[in-house]
Design a protein that fits this description.
3 helices, mainly alpha, binds zinc ion, two-stranded antiparallel sheet, 96 residues
Length: 96
């Protein structure tokens, strides 16, 4: 699956009734509380990893409830980590 196909699939999935149900299971499990700052407002469900994408019911621990602010922060960190990993690989290549 190409990245573009993946994104199309992912966005369609996020709009599906199945995701709505799974999302509400994760919200209930986390007592409708942001697991990072304990806020009860603007809650979103974040994928810790995508290995169980569209099969999250098999193990809800791949999901976590975050408020919009912590969710954005989480994605910024992830992006930063990816960037660091990428730069590290580039440097290693240059040094070799
Ligand atoms: Zn939060
Ligand atoms: Zn997320």
């Amino acid at each position: 699956m190409s990245y573009t196909n993946f994104l199309a699939f992912y966005h369609a999935y996020l709009a599906s009734p199945k995701w709505r149900d799974i999302r509400s299971l994760a919200l209930t499990r986390d007592c409708e509380t942001c697991q990072s700052c304990n806020s009860h407002e603007c809650l979103e469900v974040h994928h810790i990893h995508y290995k169980l994408l569209a099969r999250e019911e098999l193990d809800l621990s791949c999901l976590i409830t975050l408020c919009r602010y912590c969710h954005e922060e989480e994605h910024r960190q992830q992006k930063k980590l990816r960037q660091l990993a990428f730069e590290y690989i580039l440097k290693k290549k240059e040094a070799a």
